[in-house]
Amino acid sequence: MTTTVAAAAVGTATRAGVEVRLENLQRRYAGVTALDGLSLTMAPGELVALLGPSGCGKTTALRLVAGLEQADSGRVVVGGEDVTGQPTNKRDVGMVFQAYSLFPHLTAWQNVAFGLQMRKVDARQRRQRAGEMLELVGLSGFADRFAHQLSGGQQQRVALARALAIQPKVLLLDEPLSALDAKVRARLRDEIRRVQLEVGITTLFVSHDQEEALAIADRVGVMHSGRIEQLGPPTTIYSRPATPFVAEFVGLTNRLPGVVRGGEVDVRGSRLPLVQPDTADGPAIALVRPEAVSVASGGETAAAPLVGTVIATAFLGATSRVTIDLGDITVLAQLPTSEATALPAGTRVRIAIRADPVLISRDEAAPERA
Amino acid sequence: MIAAGNPDVKTARRPREGGRRFPLHWVGALPFLIYVALFLLLPTAIVVVGAFVGKAGPSLSNITDLNQQFVLNAFVSSLLISTASAVVGAVTGALLAYAVATGNPRGVLRRVVSSACGVLAQFGGVTLAFAFIATIGSVGFIRLWLQERGLDIYANGVWLTELPGLVLVYTYFQIPLMVLVFLPALDGIRPQWREATESLGGGTWHYWRYVAGPLLAPAFLGATLLLFANAFSAYATAAALISQGNPIVPIAISNFLTSETGRNNPGLAQALALGMVVIVAIVMTLYALLQRRTSRWLR
User: If one looks up domain A2-244 in CATH, what number appears?
Assistant: First the structure.
């Protein structure tokens, strides 16, 4: 495989990733707390995505690692070395920005070679290594093009090659896909992951797009108000959210009114176990994933006591999302498209909620969604 | 969509004359285009033709008359004044524009400087000359105030009405013009470029040497050329300050057109004007080329 050859040739494959630790980072701006004691340990070669709504502090965390901002307190430790006080150009980090970060007066290979020039690598080696890095990201035929002659996706791949060319200890990706259209975004996301695995570099990826973060990361840290609310593998984050915020921010969630009694929540006759059984009794909002809702046409039965009317169906490909009106609330159900097509708008249906452990919320305010 | 054979589909009626319709959006530009034709293109054509017409018909005598010492001196002086005022205006204006660009985008400095420059870049002629005469002229209040304190700025002669004085006065409108022209280029510099430079191991020097400098250089040179053309073609301010001789080309042209002492020579005036047209055309072509490059980089 050519990319493997390229990675080996530039020496990046042999350079093992290093551990990165963010220890109790605090950062305030004019009275606003951006980071409130953020701690995170990244294993060598791991890709961690920080996911959260705007203003949650994820970009601040990344900029503190890069040295583009200074923490009020706390430490950044890279490969066992405390780099908290070091300027950006001494930290040995590679960074890919949201967009428009290529130097427009330089060609693709000159951009990639820029960091090597800063390190006084001789011209012949610079040209050679830049060519290898462009090959790694699949752009060897575009070496002499300027930024304005490249598409948005190609520009970001050049930016990735430029960041990796200096063989940094850490790769920082600041929403590198946010300015791209959906199709290019999905393709480049996979491309970034492939290169990251190939090079084996420890990577911090910041995004407000949950699909992107869940798809690319080894672990996802969901951030809220300057702290990591939950850190774990994508499947855990999605299927076992630790807090109501995570449940509502990651994926779609039905908010169904119910009553907590004896470690269960009663939602209109359906008794659902709680993630935290020691929750006090009383009214609550049960947070239920659409895929935990099953739908069948026809009237009420003992197994499916809730009856409603289909009011909309959104086609998502293999699955469809069906919106059902229960009279005072609407419920989302995610079904195989083959089943959903049998339930056109206006169909009377009965629904059942799978008895998975659920989280409850007693705060009516929904979190901000990006 | 093919409508033939489908009685339910109505097709749009073709224009009666069958020809192309006049693009109406051009109507708004017509008054301006007529104005430019009458007061720029027509005079230029008259100058070009007149430069090649002698007393007895078509001739190169006006062009060959340009090769006289006082004419060459006028061109050299014009070029020197324009270059000096353009360089001083460009450097000072660029520093001011940088201060504005790096400050608060909604701050007082930006609002004040932008508004003031919009007005002052158009300030010139008798009004500007009078402002300088009243302040640092031979009986200007600043000159007298300094003189009372033992500092005579005219100890070696009244330079305000000579070429150095023109450079100083021209700088007054050159600096604001530079700010107006150069500020958009500075605004086009993205903070990510500095951060990218730093993350790649570069410092402030590397950023200016390899990134911001090369990116801004075409815009800076282009703006300097614009300032040069601006000064080269200025007439009213110089005419108000200097009443004797033919120190610069615009005044020489005026003298050859209006002299009542036997030096009237419209043909030579047109040849001088043609020389100015050629120089300004070259400068503006270079400006346009540099501007094109800048707009591609600093969008």
Answer: 3.40.50.300
